[in-house]
Design a protein that fits this description.
The complex is a heterodimer of chains A (240) and B (305). Chain A has 240 residues and is α/β, with parallel strands linked by helices. Chain A has 10 helices and 10 strands. With 305 residues, chain B is mostly helical. Chain B has a domain at 20-135 and 150-232. Chain B is built from 10 helices and 4 strands. Chain B has helices at residues 2-32, 39-60, 65-92, 101-122, 152-174, 176-193, 198-224, 231-246, 251-271, 277-291; strands spanning 127-128, 136-139, 149-151, 226-227. Chain B is globular and about 65 Å long. The relative contact order of chain B is 0.21. The chains are: A alpha/beta (240), B mainly alpha (305). The interface between A and B is medium-sized, with 28 and 21 residues. Chain B: Its main location: membrane. Chain B: It comes from Hansschlegelia beijingensis.
Chain lengths: 240, 305
């Protein structure tokens, strides 16, 4: 494999004395969608935040474009054009939809704000109708759209999506996955996707990783993982 | 009636000063969730810096009052802002992420330090400012009865307050810095994920609060003509009361609360007892905390997540 855009090497992270990540290796090559699946509490969201240095990796290293970003402050990592739609969406509740999007565009110095705004409104027309409404008054699905739109406003080179389908109606979740797929195909956007909805995620992704208790237990092509009986048993048919 | 009108005018003037200080409390509370108990003393330092700059200008022979006041305002704001920045840097930032009471205790320590520092450096005696602005802007035609006065100082105080508050309001609501500041207030972790340097934003918040407090310091000095090392304590607690009354964290609330506390205190002094005017203000604090803990314009803590 050629040089990956993002690579994690032996990353560990702790909450107090509890090890949340126990030596994680992940490669996200440029132009691909890579997904990380796993059960609740496996450490997926922690991993997403550790890429941003909050919590900071205790051991191991995180490389972006070959540059070691393990010890950079969170805001400087964001300025490298890594954007995240985080767990829980984290919309600014007392800001309007437009202001939330402006916050997303801050790292671009608003160089192409109008153009980017038009683009996200094209992708999520619902947000355009709600532009002057406060973030806290949006429905869950709308907040999810806003969180992704806000991340896109920075023209990210790498987009981290933490459970974009969580709590959404299946139809909206499907719509969000198809948007992610289109952005990847049409614009070559690199995406690192964390999901519990393993079926959709693996179908969409070029490559997948399975995380259990803070460790990567399996990896491979998206469709290839989907075929594996262990994956099917644990993440696809297990709960049904 | 004339007497009441006069008290209203005095109350609005005093309320302007409280409002300017209250903004510093409410803004810092909004962004770091602590009460900066040293803020009243930053106001006091601001008053002293204004006094020193004014006297220095007078010694240099700057006699034209509007020019002198303008220079005093700008220089005092800059220097006081530096104090605000330093206090945050030394006493609060190292404690961020520590338990909630730690910065509060540190703030009280900072307040004591600032008072003693000024007492040692400037002496404990009351320092007078020579009268700079004299005369009346307007006087009622008093037909043998009570004459209502609006002095030039009062006009300057109210106008300066309005201008500062508008400027400040525009910064918070219209600029990208203000937006980043509100983002930090609502979710600092997310703000960092979007490239906002949260520590720097917090520093600048302290700087803005201190600058407004120094405006209040200058206004206080013009109004009362004196300053001593202890003025920050009572004025600070009253401004804090104003911030709580308006709803801590709410900027319009701080302005409104300041105005109300100024009016209440003045009217209480006028009709009941000057000796017990502080009791009036602090009773308000108690009553608000018991019956209306989120204040007049504060938001109740209900939010869709």
């Amino acid at each position: 494999m050629s040089e990956a855009m993002l690579s994690l090497r032996g990353v560990t992270a702790y909450y107090g004395a509890i090890a949340a990540l126990k030596g994680v290796d992940i490669e996200v090559p440029a132009g691909e969608i890579v997904t990380l699946i796993g059960a609740n509490g496996a450490g997926k969201s922690t991993l997403m935040m550790t890429i941003f240095g909050a919590p900071r990796a205790r051991d191991g290293s995180i490389l972006f474009d070959g540059r070691d970003i393990t010890h950079l402050p969170t805001y400087e990592i964001a300025r490298l054009k890594i954007a995240q739609s985080p767990e829980g969406r984290r919309i600014f509740p007392r800001m309007t939809v437009l202001e939330n999007l402006q916050m997303g565009a801050a790292v671009t110095q608003f160089a192409h704000f109008d153009e980017d705004l038009r683009r996200v409104f094209d992708i999520f027309p619902r947000l355009k109708d709600r532009a002057s409404q406060r973030g806290g008054t949006l429905s869950g699905g709308e907040q999810q759209m806003l969180a992704i739109a806000r991340a896109l406003m920075s023209r990210p080179r790498l987009l981290l999506l933490d459970e974009p389908s969580l709590g959404l109606a299946p139809l909206i979740a499907k719509q969000i996955f198809s948007v992610v797929g289109e952005l990847n195909r049409n614009e070559g956007l690199t995406v690192f996707l964390v999901e519990q909805n393993a079926y959709h995620a693996l179908k969409l992704a070029h490559r997948g990783y399975v995380m259990v208790n803070g460790q990567i237990t399996m990896s491979g092509g998206g469709l290839e993982l989907l075929e594996r009986p262990e994956v099917r048993a644990a993440y696809l048919e297990g709960g049904r | 009636m004339e007497y009441f009108a006069q008290q209203l005018i005095n109350g609005v003037t005093l309320g302007s000063i409280y409002g300017l200080i209250a903004i510093g409390y409410t803004m810092v509370y909004g962004i770091v969730g602590m009460i900066n108990f040293a803020h009243g003393d930053i106001f006091m330092v601001g008053a002293f810096l204004a006094l020193i700059v004014y006297l220095a200008l007078a010694a240099l022979g700057v006699a034209f009052a509007p020019l002198a006041l303008l220079i005093v305002l700008v220089v005092a704001m800059a220097l006081t802002a530096l104090y605000g920045w330093t206090v945050e840097r030394i006493a609060y930032r190292p404690l961020r992420g520590s338990f909630r009471l730690a910065p509060l205790i540190s703030a009280i320590g900072m307040a004591i330090f600032l008072q003693n520092y000024v007492q040692v450096a400037q002496g404990a005696r009351v320092k007078p400012l020579p009268p700079v602005v004299r005369g009346y802007f307007w006087q009622s035609e008093g037909g043998g009865g009570f004459v209502v006065n609006i002095s030039n100082v009062q006009v300057i105080i109210v106008l300066t307050t309005i201008v500062s508050m508008i400027a400040f309001w525009l910064i918070v609501t219209r600029t990208s810095f203000g937006r980043a500041q509100r983002a930090c207030e609502q979710d600092s972790k997310m703000a960092a994920l979007l490239g906002v340097d949260v520590d720097r934003t917090i520093s600048l918040t302290f700087v803005m609060g201190a600058a407004l407090a120094s405006v209040a310091g200058l206004m206080y000095l013009l109004y009362y003509g004196v300053a001593d090392f202890y003025i920050g304590f009572v004025a600070g607690i009253k401004a804090f009361t104003a911030a709580v009354l308006g709803g801590i964290g709410s900027l319009p609330g701080a302005m409104l609360g300041g105005l109300l506390i100024g009016l209440i205190e003045t009217l209480w002094s006028a009709y009941f007892s000057v000796e017990y005017k502080d009791v009036a203000a602090f009773s308000i604090l108690v009553i608000v905390l018991i019956f209306l803990p989120s204040g007049l314009l504060g938001r109740p803590e209900v939010e869709k997540v």
